[in-house]
Automatic annotation (TrEMBL):
One of its GO terms (cellular component) is Ino80 complex. Pfam families: YL1_C (PF08265). It comes from the Eukaryota. It is found in: Nucleus. PANTHER family: INO80 COMPLEX SUBUNIT C. Its main location: nucleus. SMART domains: YL1_C (SM00993). GO terms for biological process: CENP-A containing chromatin assembly; chromatin remodeling. This is Vps72/YL1 C-terminal domain-containing protein. Residues 90-119 form the Vps72/YL1 C-terminal domain.
């Protein structure tokens, strides 16, 4: 916002106008006790705070308070879901990466040939421990 005014010499000069209406003083030297009375040129007048996000707890409370929702409608509180139509993902028992292969002797899943070599070097009790971690109750002989 710019305002044109006439000087005593007859020429026009431009003055910046405060968008809030009230003109604030500019201080020189030591800062005053009340800084709210003085103009702060480093502040952006168009700044607005970023949007606040809702916490999970707030969403759960909103879902719990809804009364017009049918009983079988899926909400955040519902943990019941139909079984997946996709096959279960298989992960390597040693590295945790996506398993492509399965060892025919032990039944361990592995990622690549380096992991397969590692599996071949292990004892039966170690392999049994890896299967136990996966809850695959297989007794190796």
């Amino acid at each position: 916002m710019v305002e044109d005014t006439l000087n005593s010499s007859g020429t026009t000069s431009e003055k910046k106008r405060n968008p809030f209406g009230k003109k604030k003083k500019e201080y020189v030297g030591e800062p005053p006790l009340n800084l709210n009375d003085y103009e702060k040129p480093f502040k952006n007048a168009k700044y607005s705070t970023p949007k606040k996000y809702k916490l999970l707890k707030q969403i759960l409370m909103m879902d719990r308070n809804k009364t017009d929702v049918p009983i079988d409608a899926p909400l955040y509180m519902n943990i019941e879901a139909p079984p997946s139509v996709y096959p279960r993902k298989k992960y390597c028992d040693i590295t945790g990466l996506k398993a492509i292969y399965t060892d025919p002797k032990s039944g361990l899943r592995y990622y690549d040939s380096t992991v397969y070599k590692y599996i071949q070097e292990q004892t039966q009790s170690t392999l049994q421990g890896y299967l136990g971690l996966r809850n695959a109750a297989v007794n190796l002989k």
